[in-house]
Amino acid sequence: MSGQDPAIGSPEQSGRERCDADIDARVSIGLLQIAYKNNLANIGVNLIAGLGVIAIIISYGGAIAEMVPWIAALTALTVIRAIATAIDLRCLHGEEPLSPKRLRWMIATYALGLSLGWVLWTALTYIAMQSDIVAVRFTALIVISALAAGATGILAPVLTIGRAYIFMMLLQGSLQLALSPERDIVLAILGIVFAIVMLVSHSNNHQVLRRSLRLQFENSALIGDLTDQRSKLEELNSSLEERVQRRTRELKRLSENDGLTGIYNRRGILDWVDSRYGAVEEGHAYLCVFIDLDRFKQINDGMDHAVGDRVLVEVANRLRVAAPKDAALCRWGGDEFVLLIELPEEVCHEAGAEFIEAVRPQVEDTMSIDGRELQVGFSAGMSISGPSPDAVRESIRSADLAMAEIKRRGRGGARYFSEELFAEQKRNFLIAQRLKHAVSYREFSLAFQPIVSARAAQVDSCEVLLRWSTPSIGPVGPDEFISIAEDTGDIVAIGEYVLDTACAAMTSGIISRAVPTVAVNVSLRQLVSQKFSSRVRSILDSHGMPASKLILEVTENIFEDRNREVVAWVLHELSDMGIAVHIDDFGTGYSSLSRLNEMPIAALKIDKSFVQNMSKQETAIIQGSVMIADRFNIETIAEGVETLEQARKLQAMGVTSLQGYFFGKPRPSFGAKEYSEAMSGLRLLHDSDISVFDAR
């Protein structure tokens, strides 16, 4: 009896190995195609960056004649690399397969182009580092660092070549820092550390790209394999039903389970409810627990999405262990989990609290990931529903609302959905409906509060504050209705009304003519609305009010990436008109210090929560804000000043202007009386005789 040689393996195994080898080859070609496609951008960036550095060197007195050889070399290298890349790209995307020799030649020429570029940058860095001008030296270092950082993405397809390029670019910069006449060992060491970080980032990018291509080709291979199998199954009809059923079960499993954690996904848990409908015991109900991890985004942003994924897997495992045997657990989306537990209806409420109490220490226990100790908390909403699929869907929505309320009030807790919460949602709905008519029904009014100088005896401005009272609801505070107006989009029409009314008050005498400017709050949604700048100009013109008398206050969410370009363009338009832009509630939301220099910001308004507490931590935040503002040549305004002691402390810290009840409460107008009150507060602050200006 003859047997198959184990060293040879089965035909099926050999086929898989051939398939894997084919996919590996296709992945290599795909990576090379992407590398060459990215190479055109790399070439262009190198040319622009090089000419930019040369321009800066020349602008600081460098000899043009000395730069000509380098410019010529860079230009020649750029042209040669661009032509070679274009030729190789055509070959890579051609129909004929490329020989191994041709592929090796392409890789070699690609590496040679990068190497020659590195040589040129090394030479330019050396020239720059010999300069006595700090700006020239640091411009060269910043540019090579930026090129190295950009290479983590552009050179992600080529692992070894990319690593060498990134490391050598940063190494030569660090060495020249250490060996230059103005040597800086600390920065040189930091350069090496930065190089290591960039190498890690480049490696991660490469792995992600490789996995993505492999998955793409595996999917293509799978489709091809399914087509081939179908043909074979037509010839072997007896096995068709079994194979189809097996594949169907697998696809169903994939469609119902989360690919990361292995637990149910949203569709899976709803299908689970559908499948059990009719089998739930009489008198039983579902306890629905909606869990959302607290500040999970900080893990993704501060560490890595791969770390975040492992945290999600660990949390899912802990919830799975803690959940009762017959419970259903799913990843609802992102960092949200839903748990359904069938229980006697009369014990559901108590069981929910007990479950949260038992599972919280398990979920929040320290987890070790890549040698780092991490902890994550969660907020939870709960609700109870009958066994019907529609009731469960509504229950999940209710539990989500309860969880959102916990998040809104500070995170880390748990609560049941209740009639009170429903009433609050109903009130929000009524507010949203009334807001649509509040302007036309003249239900809004304005109040004015002074902003005074901490350096001189003068009122700098008046902030416009919006007030609303409607017959069907009564007075509604801005903290309640502004966020709803943002959600519904009515904030655009409301904001236009406020701006128009404020300008009318400024020109009609409602605001004292001794006040030089008026400050109006503007939402992000207004800023990105169509023709906002034109509308502001039109309102100013209609009241004959100079743009220099208007200040627009925006919140920190203007720094969010999704609206960055539009917001920057609009703010520059407003600034060009002569309108000052202030950041309101600074320190309480999304801040990006690097963006302060990109946008025409005139002042930062420090939130009143820091001023009114004034503890050691809050004081440090205020001092840091003042220091940041000073570095960017931006003024600072402190809100919520209620005592002389607070005013003097803020003045000593270097705050530019002050606002709060100590200088005046919000009033329906700001005439001579209100002006005099503000000046009285200023007199106490500056501790000197101040003659009140004519406030007519």
TrEMBL record:
Pfam families: EAL (PF00563), GGDEF (PF00990). Residues 428-680 form the EAL domain. Signal peptide: none annotated. Keywords: Coiled coil, Membrane, Transmembrane, Transmembrane helix. SMART domains: EAL (SM00052), GGDEF (SM00267). It comes from the Bacteria. Residues 284-419 form the GGDEF domain. Residues 223-257 form a coiled coil. The keyword Transmembrane applies. This is Diguanylate cyclase (GGDEF) domain-containing protein. The chain crosses the membrane at residues 40-61, 67-87, 107-128, 140-165, 185-203. InterPro entries: Biofilm_reg_signaling (IPR052155), EAL_dom (IPR001633), EAL_sf (IPR035919), GGDEF_dom (IPR000160), Nucleotide_cyclase (IPR029787), Rev_trsase/Diguanyl_cyclase (IPR043128). The keyword Membrane applies. PROSITE patterns: EAL, GGDEF.
